[in-house]
Here is the input.
Amino acid sequence: MKTANVNKWIENLQNVSQPSKVKILSSFFKTGKGEYGEGDIFAGINVPDNRKIAEQFYNLAYEEIYELLSSPIHEHRLSALLALVKKYHKTSIVEHAEIVNFYLANTRFINNWDLVDLSAPKIIGEYTLLSNEDILYTLSDSESLWERRIAIVATYTHIKKGEFKHTLIFANKYLDSKDSLIHKATGWMLREIGKKDLPTLLNYLDDNYKIMPRTALRYAIERLQPELKRHYMNKD
Here is the structure.
């Protein structure tokens, strides 16, 4: 049975839902048969509105947050994750491990790219920056597309601190991946390395551009000068 807090949270989300956006979001997040988001249900809630509401409920018990995280409605799950991000940054280091354990125990609900991208750097990235880097490698070995994406996207936090090791290891590890969402995330992280340290990105590209998946390569070189883009896109 849902608590009064959970019912209020859901009611607040419902009040900002826009049914006219449901069809657009369902198409954008690939909910059709055989697509990566197959069967997901949208309510039509934009992220800024969702975040404002989620941050009002961050201090609820994990059992209550779970009610939203396990919801079949996409924006409910996102709201739970945004609340967890707020909880992580509002609580003491002692509770960080609990939040991370809760997050990792429920990755089956973190099952679309926005859910990963808006939570992994702020929780898993922050945590592994200070301790237990093994979490990243366990996730990167997973059979789950979403856990593998959590691993690479979580390194965004490391990149911002000038630490590129894990990103480069995962970029090599994912070269043979069959998932375009992994290639997009890998290319994105490589591009972020380039913003911090262009020579590191160029060295990686020099060694790997001929064998990189095209999608990852396009994302990685997006901010380079036109002549460099042409050079790396020409694999002959």
